[in-house]
Specification:
This protein is mainly beta and about 550 residues long. The longest helix is centred in the N-terminal third of the chain and has 23 residues. The protein is about 10% helix and about 60% strand.
């Protein structure tokens, strides 16, 4: 007699339990396709023909149609007329005119007037393959998805129902009441109704606003939030761009990082920097990090560089201004300047320089405790110097003509200083030259009011009023102390130039005609259906057979 040990009985019990559990599990998720109902049933060979009011079932999925061919051994069915599939467990339902269903792979090929629905999301197409095992539906010949917020169309698409994600490819269009989006690749998440795109993406609003991205975007369609990569947002009054650009459409708030540009179309003024923020309703912007402003005029451009630039526009003239700080440097035509901070008042085109301000114009250096100048007819008109005003002009042989006083007013003609009026405690030191090459002596003058005239950047003459005290020093008596007024400081090495401006920041040149999907013709070329493909194959096979028969 065979002796059985306890281990043998335990193994036998485990095998029986496993078989019963597997059997029960398979019964719960049976792959067998069953006939539940049909008005008529005819068998022709291995085919069962079901006619009128056909109902079939596989696990939790109910199948309805007008008629069907059921291949019981193969566990397959061809379904005709008013085909419907419903699964209350995964809430997926579909309808079509025709379907080819494989019960083994659970692949349903739905054709013509396909309506595929999950919860509040509905997909319309004429060609859909639905893999029930993984909840994946693919269309290849144009499809449209509709939910409570958006309508999306594309040439090809994949709906992953288990993770509530739809991938749209080729000629993708998203439409809602606020915007129309175009791209060639878009991922749509049906629960929170957000869209992510790859590559070129263009968006337009009914009002004409444009939102563009070269390297993809994110769009929260319910909360009206956008994120663009290498993108820009443009409307009637402004354009904001950056390598990464965030836009809140409800709050009308923009935030950009890297290669930031904020263009005010009304002021024809553009600000660049590393990081920028713009509140459209307030018309207020802040730009940080190697910031640069370019104010465009017909003849030239005003450049202003600083670490931080703040621009405030307004319906009220007195509230329109721009602030630049710290360490401001600026250039406009022949005028250059620097200061610790600068204010540009838009309403009267006046620029104020504070904190050790300096200006240079041709051969002249201008300094004072505070300086402001006015732009009229797009050119420098006047400059106003207050407290400790000092002007130095280099002559043709590197001498320095000087004038100082309590306050001064400089007059400009075509961008160059033409006259300088000194008011209060005026002092001047002027080198007399013969033929612009030989020093004849130094003229000095103390006077309450002095007027200095310029031609081509050089001092041409000096007028004086109110008790002048003048003296002349011949060349052989000139000492080093005689050549400078008290407070003299020639700081030409601090003069900004365009090389310095572009070292600070050189804006990226904009494409003149960037690609835009709205400019491409909206043509949809449908893929051939299965019958057309088979016809093409048959024609090719026939042509090959004919060629083989030829001697």
């Amino acid at each position: 007699m065979l002796k059985k040990n306890p281990t043998y009985f335990l193994s036998l019990i485990f095998l029986i339990f496993s078989f019963q559990f597997s059997k029960a599990q398979n019964q719960g998720t049976s792959k067998t396709l069953k006939i539940i109902k049909s008005d008529k049933l005819r068998s022709v060979g291995n085919i069962q023909k079901l006619i009128n009011n056909v109902v079939m079932q596989q696990d939790n999925t109910m199948i309805y149609c007008d008629s069907a061919y059921f291949y019981e051994k193969e566990n397959k069915a061809k379904l005709f007329g008013n085909v419907r599939m419903n699964n209350p467990v995964d809430t997926v339902s579909s309808s079509s005119r025709y379907a080819d269903y494989d019960g083994n792979t659970q692949l349903a090929k739905l054709r013509e007037n396909v309506v595929f629905k999950k919860a509040s999301t509905t997909l319309y197409t004429d060609f859909l393959d639905y893999d029930r095992r993984y909840g994946i539906a693919d269309y290849y010949n144009f499809g449209k998805v509709v939910d409570s917020t958006n309508v999306l169309t594309s040439q090809k698409g994949r709906y992953e129902t288990q993770i509530e994600k739809i991938t749209f490819r080729d000629n993708v269009i998203l439409v809602n009441p606020e915007y129309t989006l175009k791209s060639n690749t878009l991922y749509y998440y049906t629960l929170n109704k957000t869209a992510e795109t790859e590559g070129l993406t263009n968006i337009r609003s009914p009002e004409g606003d444009e939102l563009n991205a070269k390297k993809g975007s994110f769009y929260d369609t319910q909360n009206k939030l956008f994120r663009f990569y290498h993108g820009d947002v443009e409307n009637e009054t402004s354009r904001v761009a950056g390598d990464t650009l965030f836009y809140d459409d409800i709050k009308k708030y923009y935030e950009a990082r890297e290669n930031v540009s904020i263009f005010n179309k009304e002021r024809n003024l553009e600000i660049f920097g590393d990081k920028g923020q713009y509140w459209e309703a307030r018309k207020y912007s802040e730009v940080f990090g190697n910031a640069l402003v370019q104010k465009y005029f017909k003849e030239d451009t005003l450049y202003m560089a600083a670490d931080t630039l703040i621009s405030q526009d307004s319906e009220l003239a007195e509230n329109r201004h721009m602030l630049a700080f710290p360490n401001t440097r600026m250039i406009k035509g022949n005028l250059s300047g620097r200061a610790d901070s600068t204010t540009y008042v838009y309403s009267d085109s006046t620029i104020y320089l504070f904190g050790d301000p300096l200006l240079w114009n041709n051969k002249s250096q201008i300094s004072a405790d505070s300086i402001h100048f006015v732009i009229a007819n797009e050119d420098i008109d006047k400059v106003f110097l207050k407290e400790n005003a000092f002007v130095i002009t280099a002559d043709t042989i590197a001498n320095f003509n000087q004038i100082k006083g309590r306050q001064m007013t400089g007059h400009f003609t075509e961008g160059d200083i033409s006259r300088l009026d000194v008011e209060g405690n005026g002092e001047s030191l002027y080198f007399a030259l013969e033929n612009d090459t030989t020093v004849q002596g130094i003229n000095t003058l103390l006077c309450g009011k002095i007027i200095m005239h310029f031609e081509k950047g050089n001092v041409s003459k000096i007028n004086h009023t109110i008790n002048p005290d003048a003296s002349f020093i011949p060349p052989h008596l000139i000492t080093e102390d005689d050549t400078k007024l008290k407070g003299f400081s020639w700081r030409i090495d601090e003069k900004p130039d365009m090389e310095m401006i572009y070292e600070w920041r050189k804006p990226i040149e904009k494409e003149e005609n960037p690609s835009n999907l709205f400019n491409e013709p909206n043509i949809r070329i449908p893929y051939p259906n299965e019958d057309e493909i088979q016809e093409i194959i048959n024609e090719w096979l026939n042509s090959q057979n004919k060629n083989l028969k030829k001697p």
